[in-house]
Amino acid sequence: MKIRNTIPAIQNQFVTVVKIDKGIPMPQVKNTHGNTVYPWKTMEVGDSFLFRSQSKQNAYSQSNRHSGILSPKKFVIRNTDAGYRCWRIA
């Protein structure tokens, strides 16, 4: 018996066979990453906004992500007395 379209996988020291399916439609994305509360697309050079989150990691992650998506627009984050603020610089 010949098994086609399979890949052997090791699980708990036993070899199992994983079947490869073809023609299965991919479901639509169910996240809200495209719907942002921040005004990335409408900002002009010199504009800024205060992040709602006080997390440095979240602020920098959002800025880096949107700098790549909206290239050649560039954004920078600075910690201010009020919290993390984002400026559009290019």
Silhouette: elongated
What is the overall pLDDT average? 75
Low-confidence stretches: none
Q: Give the CA-CA distance, first to last residue.
A: 63 Å
Q: Note the total helix count.
A: 1
Strand order of the largest sheet: 3-5-4
Query: How many strands appear in the DSSP assignment?
Result: 5
Describe this structure in words.
- The structure is a single chain.
- This protein has a domain at about 45-90.
- The protein is elongated.
- The chain has a 3-stranded antiparallel β-sheet, covered by helices on one side. The chain has a two-stranded antiparallel ribbon with strand order 1-2.
- It is an alpha+beta fold.
- The protein has one helix at about 55-70, and strands at about 5-10, 15-20, 50, 75-80, 85-90.
Could you provide a short overview of the structure?
The protein has 90 residues and is an alpha+beta fold.
Which structural traits does this protein have?
90 residues, three-stranded antiparallel β-sheet, alpha+beta, two-stranded antiparallel sheet, elongated
Topology:
Layout: E1 6-11, E2 14-19, E3 48-50, H1 56-69, E4 75-80, E5 83-88
